[in-house]
Amino acid sequence: MDHSRLTAAAAQQPLLRRIGVYSVCAAYLLFSTVIAAPAHAESRTAIEIPRADQEHCQARMREYLQITTEILWATLDGDMQTVEEKAIQGVPSRYREDLVDNDNDQPNSTLGQGRGEQSGGMAMRGDGLRGAGEGRRGDGGPRHERMEQIMPSAYQAMMHSMHEDFMQMAKDARDKADPQHTQRQLARIKDNCVACHASYKFASEE
What we know:
- There is one protein chain.
- The chain is mostly helical.
- The protein has helices spanning 3-36, 51-77, 80-89, 115-118, 143-150, 153-175, 179-199; strands at residues 45-49, 137-138, 141-142, 200-204.
- It has 2 domains: 1-41; 46-204, no CATH class.
- It is built from 7 helices and 4 strands.
- The strands form 2 sheets. It has a two-stranded parallel sheet with strand order 1-4. Strands 2-3 form a two-stranded antiparallel sheet.
- A hairpin with a 2-residue loop joins strand 2 (137-138) and strand 3.
- The longest helix is centred in the N-terminal third of the chain and has 34 residues, at 3-36.
- The protein is globular.
- The N and C termini lie far apart (81 Å).
- Mean pLDDT is 73; it is low at 24-37, 102-133 and 135-140.
């Protein structure tokens, strides 16, 4: 009998037992964690607003989704006029005064005249329909004024940043006409959307 091999095997037994104990403990802790915590724990901040305001915000988000998709397709086609038109649709009308023709200081001829308006789109039209981000007057005055008083400041900052990005996109589409530049701007807007949806959710007021 090889005594050296028996001695080595005996020496390994405490180590093997420790490894076995550690493995069992690790498995127990992992199982306990999975049971104790939901697979998708909700960590977003709830914004409690009336149902009508929730529906308005959700409709506006769908408008932004449509606008950004149409901008992406326009860049793939090299159609920078449509990029400008759609980017303007992403700017609430109260902020559009900066989008003017630099030569004669008059509103650009494409303001509110994109293909979306001609086919029943969402942006400001001659018949008074509002662009993305616009709201009707409620009991507390214009919707945007009421909501600015109740929405978290960080949420508002992301919305204002997106409006500014759409404004810059419209100007650059006219002045630079570079589809790849527009795509980078579009990616920044989408990053903003992702960050907002990861941070907030809407909840109905009781």
